[in-house]
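A reminder from the course coordinator: this example appears on the midterm review sheet, so study it carefully.

Given structure:
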Protein backbone atom coordinates (compact mmCIF):
# COMPACT_ATOMS: atom_id res chain seq x y z
CA UNK A 1 0.00 0.00 0.00
CA UNK A 2 1.35 3.41 -0.94
CA UNK A 3 1.12 6.58 1.11
CA UNK A 4 -1.52 7.86 -1.34
CA UNK A 5 -3.54 4.67 -0.88
CA UNK A 6 -3.41 5.15 2.88
CA UNK A 7 -4.48 8.79 2.58
CA UNK A 8 -7.32 7.84 0.25
CA UNK A 9 -8.52 5.15 2.67
CA UNK A 10 -8.32 7.45 5.70
CA UNK A 11 -10.11 10.26 3.87
CA UNK A 12 -12.91 7.91 2.81
CA UNK A 13 -13.32 6.71 6.40
CA UNK A 14 -13.26 10.29 7.71
CA UNK A 15 -15.95 11.44 5.26
CA UNK A 16 -18.10 8.34 5.79
CA UNK A 17 -18.00 8.72 9.57
CA UNK A 18 -19.41 12.24 9.18
CA UNK A 19 -21.74 11.53 6.25
CA UNK A 20 -19.80 14.09 4.19
CA UNK A 21 -19.40 12.02 1.02
CA UNK A 22 -22.69 13.51 -0.18
CA UNK A 23 -20.92 16.89 -0.44
CA UNK A 24 -17.84 15.55 -2.22
CA UNK A 25 -18.96 15.80 -5.83
CA UNK A 26 -16.06 16.56 -8.20
CA UNK A 27 -17.48 20.08 -8.69
CA UNK A 28 -17.38 20.79 -4.95
CA UNK A 29 -13.97 19.20 -4.41
CA UNK A 30 -12.42 21.12 -7.29
CA UNK A 31 -13.78 24.40 -5.90
CA UNK A 32 -12.47 23.57 -2.43
CA UNK A 33 -9.10 22.73 -3.98
CA UNK A 34 -9.00 26.08 -5.78
CA UNK A 35 -9.88 27.90 -2.55
CA UNK A 36 -7.03 26.19 -0.71
CA UNK A 37 -4.58 27.10 -3.48
CA UNK A 38 -5.74 30.71 -3.08
CA UNK A 39 -5.02 30.52 0.64
CA UNK A 40 -1.52 29.23 -0.16
CA UNK A 41 -0.93 32.10 -2.57
CA UNK A 42 -1.74 34.65 0.12
CA UNK A 43 1.43 33.67 1.98
CA UNK A 44 3.60 34.55 -1.01
CA UNK A 45 1.66 37.36 -2.67
CA UNK A 46 3.90 40.34 -1.90
CA UNK A 47 7.20 38.59 -1.16
CA UNK A 48 10.32 38.84 -3.21
CA UNK A 49 11.82 35.63 -4.57
CA UNK A 50 14.40 35.71 -1.80
CA UNK A 51 11.77 36.23 0.91
CA UNK A 52 9.66 33.39 -0.48
CA UNK A 53 12.65 31.05 -0.18
CA UNK A 54 13.43 32.04 3.44
CA UNK A 55 10.07 31.98 5.18
CA UNK A 56 9.86 32.62 8.92
CA UNK A 57 9.01 29.43 10.81
CA UNK A 58 5.46 30.58 11.59
CA UNK A 59 4.76 31.27 7.91
CA UNK A 60 6.43 28.00 6.90
CA UNK A 61 4.11 26.12 9.27
CA UNK A 62 1.07 27.90 7.80
CA UNK A 63 2.26 27.06 4.27
CA UNK A 64 2.68 23.42 5.31
CA UNK A 65 -0.92 23.37 6.56
CA UNK A 66 -2.20 24.84 3.28
CA UNK A 67 -0.17 22.33 1.26
CA UNK A 68 -1.70 19.55 3.35
CA UNK A 69 -5.21 20.88 2.65
CA UNK A 70 -4.39 20.99 -1.06
CA UNK A 71 -3.06 17.44 -1.05
CA UNK A 72 -6.06 16.11 0.83
CA UNK A 73 -8.59 17.72 -1.52
CA UNK A 74 -6.55 16.55 -4.51
CA UNK A 75 -6.52 12.96 -3.24
CA UNK A 76 -10.28 13.10 -2.59
CA UNK A 77 -10.98 14.52 -6.05
CA UNK A 78 -8.84 11.90 -7.77
CA UNK A 79 -10.51 9.16 -5.72
CA UNK A 80 -13.99 10.42 -6.56
CA UNK A 81 -13.08 10.40 -10.28
CA UNK A 82 -11.39 7.00 -10.11
CA UNK A 83 -8.01 8.44 -11.10
CA UNK A 84 -4.80 6.84 -9.86
CA UNK A 85 -3.02 10.04 -8.95
CA UNK A 86 0.46 8.52 -8.73
CA UNK A 87 0.08 6.87 -12.13
CA UNK A 88 -1.31 10.06 -13.67
CA UNK A 89 1.70 11.97 -12.32
CA UNK A 90 4.12 9.37 -13.72
CA UNK A 91 2.45 9.59 -17.14
CA UNK A 92 2.61 13.39 -17.04
CA UNK A 93 6.32 13.39 -16.21
CA UNK A 94 6.95 10.96 -19.07
CA UNK A 95 4.97 13.14 -21.46
CA UNK A 96 6.91 16.22 -20.35
CA UNK A 97 10.22 14.44 -20.87
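Designed residues:
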Amino acid sequence: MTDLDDLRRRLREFAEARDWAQFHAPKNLSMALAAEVGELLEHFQWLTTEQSEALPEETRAAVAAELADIQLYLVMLADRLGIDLAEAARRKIEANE
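The mean pLDDT is 96. The longest helix spans residues 57-81.
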